[in-house]
Design goal:
- This protein has 484 residues and is of the alpha/beta class.
- The chain has two domains: 186 residues, 3-Layer(aba) Sandwich (glycerate kinase, domain 1); 286 residues, Rossmann fold, CATH 3.40.50.
- Helix 1 crosses helix 11, helix 7 crosses helix 9 and helix 12 packs across helix 13.
- The chain is globular.
- The protein starts with a helix and ends with a strand.
C-alpha cells in the first residue's frame, strides 16, 4: 500500500467508527421516551397507533406504583422515567443491570446482574421482584422497563432445586449452540420462573405498562429478555424439538436435563393456539406500525394477567440502522441497507454481505452497505477472547485480503459496547488487516478457529472501544468502499 492509500484507509476506519458511534448517539433514550409517552401531571399519555388520539392512564387512581427495570439499558431507562414522572407516593422498585448507575434512588433496590452468564445478583433480583409483585393488587400500577441482556441478568429457575452453577452451564451451552435467539429464548422461557410471561403472572390483578428497548427482531418482541411480561406462544413440544435439533441434552447438567425430560414439563403462560408470535410479522418499512400495541388487541384467549397490559416500543435496531444511513449519506456515500442476514451464521453472513458489497460498489465511487441485526456463532471449543462482531470482522478481513490496494473497510460492532466475553464493541477490518496481523506474529486463520479475534484487533489498534453505552439495539455492520 502507498502512504496515500494508508492514509485514506485510516480515514475510512475513522468514518466507519463515526457512523457507528453517531448512530448510537442519535438513538437517545430520553428523546425516544418523550416521543412515545409523556407525563402531564398525574396523567400518562401515549398516542394510539391508529391515530385516533391519546390513550391515557391516571396515575392518581393507583395507590402504589412499582417499577421493575432490567437489562443493559435499565439504568438510563429508569433515570428517564423517574425524571419525567413526578409522583413519588407509593413508588418502589427494582433495577437489575450489568453496571450499577452512579446515581441511585433510595426507593429502589439495585442489583448487578451477570452477563452473558447469570450470577448471584441475577437470582437475587428475580426473587426480590417476585416478592414485590406478590404485594401488587388492583390498586397497583407496574412499569416494566425491559431491555436486552435481561435473560442472563435477571433469572431464577422454575425448579427451585436447580442452582446457579447449573443455570450458568445451561446458558453457556445455549450461547455456544449456534441457535438463533428466538430458539434460545424458547428454552429459557420454559426453564425460568420469571420469563415467558411469568413475571406478569406474579401480579395478575395489577395494571401493567411495559416499555421496551429490544435487541431482538421486531417480529419477535416476546423474545426480548425472554419475554418476562409477554404471553408466550411457544410450546413444550417446540422445546423438545430444539433440544434435539442442537443435540443439547448431553451438554446440560443432570439437574437441567432431568427438568426438561419431565413428562409434566409445565407450559409457559399464553395462548398456544395463537401461532404467529406476540406481534404481527411486519417488514422494516412497517416498523412504525409495530411500535405500539395493547395486549388485548392480539391476545384472544390469554390469561387475565395480560389483559390490562400496555406495551410500548421506545427504540429498535431499525432506528439505529436509519441513523447510520443518514450519517453515511451525509459523509458522501451512496447507501444501501440489507438486514436479511439477521440470525445467520457469522461466516454465511460475511460471505453474503461481501458478495453484495462487491457487486454494488462497482456502480458507485463511494459506496456504503449497512446491515443491522445479529449473527450467530457455533463454538466447538472453549473460546478465546472475542465475540460475534470480532469473529465476523476477522472473517471479512481474510476475504478482503484478496483485494490488495483497494480502499475497502468493514466495521462490525455491538450497540451495547460489549462483544462476547470482551470489553470491546467490535472491530474494523480492511485489505491490509491480515498482512499487518502476521507482521505482529498473529495467525488470523487460527484466531478465527479459536474464536480469539480480540487480541489481534487490539494489537492492530482496530478494536472498536466505546465502553458500556446504556443501549442494546443489536449490532451494526458498516461496509465502505472508496474509489476517489
Amino acid at each position: 500500500m502507498s502512504p496515500v492509500s494508508d492514509s485514506v484507509l485510516e480515514s475510512m476506519h475513522a468514518t466507519a467508527t463515526e457512523i457507528f458511534t453517531g448512530a448510537l448517539n442519535a438513538c437517545n433514550i430520553a428523546s425516544a421516551f418523550d416521543r412515545r409517552v409523556s407525563f402531564e401531571g398525574n396523567t400518562l399519555r401515549r398516542l394510539l397507533p391508529d391515530g385516533s388520539g391519546p390513550d391515557t392512564i391516571n396515575l392518581a387512581s393507583y395507590k402504589r406504583i412499582f417499577v421493575i427495570a432490567l437489562g443493559k439499558a435499565a439504568g438510563p431507562m429508569l433515570e428517564v422515567l423517574l425524571d419525567r414522572m413526578k409522583r413519588r407516593q407509593g413508588l418502589r422498585g427494582i433495577c437489575c443491570t450489568k453496571y450499577l448507575p452512579k446515581s441511585r434512588n433510595w426507593r429502589f433496590r439495585y442489583f448487578e446482574g451477570g452477563h452473558p452468564l447469570p450470577n448471584e445478583d441475577s437470582f437475587a433480583a428475580a426473587r426480590a421482584a417476585l416478592a414485590m409483585l406478590k404485594k401488587a393488587k388492583k390498586d397497583t400500577l407496574i412499569f416494566f422497563l425491559i431491555s436486552g441482556g435481561g435473560s442472563a441478568m435477571f433469572d431464577l429457575p422454575l425448579d427451585p432445586q436447580i442452582g446457579l452453577g447449573d443455570t450458568a452451564v445451561f446458558n453457556e451451552a445455549l450461547l455456544a449452540s449456534g441457535a438463533p435467539i428466538n430458539e434460545i429464548n424458547t428454552l429459557r422461557k420454559h426453564f425460568s420462573a420469571v420469563k415467558g410471561g411469568r413475571l406478569a403472572m406474579a401480579a395478575p390483578e395489577a395494571a401493567k405498562v411495559s416499555l421496551l428497548l429490544p435487541d431482538v427482531p421486531l417480529r419477535s418482541l416476546d423474545a426480548l429478555s425472554s419475554g418476562p411480561t409477554s404471553p408466550d406462544h411457544s410450546t413444550v413440544e417446540e422445546v423438545r424439538a430444539i433440544l434435539a435439533k442442537y443435540e443439547l441434552g448431553p451438554k446440560l447438567p443432570a439437574s437441567i436435563r432431568s427438568f426438561f425430560e419431565r413428562e409434566d414439563l409445565p407450559e409457559s403462560p399464553g395462548n398456544k393456539s395463537w401461532r404467529p408470535g406476540f406481534l404481527p410479522r411486519m417488514p422494516w418499512g412497517e416498523a412504525a406500525q409495530a411500535r405500539r400495541v395493547t395486549a388485548a388487541a392480539v391476545m384472544t384467549g390469554e390469561h387475565e394477567a395480560f389483559r390490562d397490559s400496555v406495551f410500548e416500543l421506545l427504540l429498535s435496531s431499525h432506528d439505529l440502522v436509519e441513523s447510520a444511513r443518514a450519517l453515511a449519506q451525509k459523509a458522501g456515500y451512496f447507501v444501501a441497507v440489507d438486514n436479511s442476514c439477521d440470525d445467520w451464521d457469522y461466516a454465511d453472513a460475511a460471505r453474503y454481505l461481501l458478495e453484495r458489497f462487491h457487486h454494488l460498489r462497482t456502480a458507485h465511487p463511494r459506496f456504503c452497505l449497512i446491515s443491522g441485526g445479529e449473527v450467530t456463532v457455533t463454538m466447538d471449543r472453549i473460546p478465546g477472547a472475542g465475540g460475534r462482531n470480532q469473529q465476523f470482522a476477522l472473517a471479512c478481513a481474510l476475504e478482503l485480503a484478496q483485494y490488495p490496494g483497494e480502499l475497502l473497510t468493514v466495521l462490525s460492532a455491538g450497540s451495547d459496547g460489549i462483544d462476547g466475553n470482551t470489553q470491546t464493541a467490535g472491530a474494523v477490518a480492511d485489505p491490509t488487516t491480515v498482512t499487518r496481523a502476521r507482521a505482529f506474529g498473529f495467525d488470523p486463520e487460527e484466531g478465527l478457529r479459536a474464536f480469539n479475534a480480540c487480541p489481534l484487533f487490539t494489537a492492530l489498534g482496530d478494536a472498536v472501544v466505546t465502553g458500556p453505552t446504556g443501549h442494546n439495539l443489536r449490532d451494526l455492520r458498516v461496509l465502505l468502499a472508496d474509489r476517489s
